[in-house]
Amino acid sequence: MITLRAIGILTAIALALHAGMTFYGDLVRPNFRASDLFSGEIPPDKAKLAAAGSLASFSWDGDLLANHAAAMAADVLHRPSAEAGGRASENKTAQAAVVAALKVSPIRPALWLTLGTLQAQAGEAVTPAVKMSYLTGSVPIDVAFSRVRTVTSSAAATDEEIKLLAQSDIRSALANRSRYEPLLIAAYVQATPQGKSLLLETTKVTDPRFNEILRRY
Which pTM was predicted? Predict the structure, then answer.
C-alpha cells in the first residue's frame, strides 16, 4: 500500500515537473526559426538565448531545441566575435546545438542548411548537411536561394546528386528573377569553378538571356 502511494506521489511530481517545464519552455522558446536565419530576421538578444539555453540543455522539445539552435547560429553568423578564437569557439558551440536539435527532430531542411552554413564558415565539409537539407523536405524561396549560394561556393557543387537537386533551387530563384537576379550574379561571382558551371548549365536551359548575362562576369 505504501509502495503504491509512493509511486503515485512520484508520478504526480513527475507530471507536475513536466507540465512546469512545458510551460516554461513556451515562455522562453525563441520566436526564431531556422528559415528566419536566411530571410534577414534579427536573432534574439543574448539574454533570451541564455534563458532558452538553460532549458534546452536537458529538454526533448524539438521546437525549443530547433529554435534555440537556429537563434544561436544566427547570433554567430550575424554578430560574430571580434577575435578569431572566439568566432571558432562560438561556431563549434552553435554547431553542437544544431546537431543536438537534429538528433531529436531531424526533418528540418532549413536547420540542416544552418548546419552547413556554420560548417562553411568554419572551413569544414558541407556536402552531407546540404544533402540532408534537400532530402528532408521543401523550403521557402529565401532558404532555397541561400542553399544555392552554399552549394555553388563549396565542394557540394561537385556532388552529382546535389547538382541535380540544386537545379530546382536555381529555377525557383529565376522564377523570381526581378528580386534574385543581382543575388544570383553575386553568387556566380563568388562561386567555385564547379559552382559557376552548375549555374551556367541550369540557366542555359531555363533562362538563356540570363545565362548570357552571367557569362559577362
Answer: 0.81
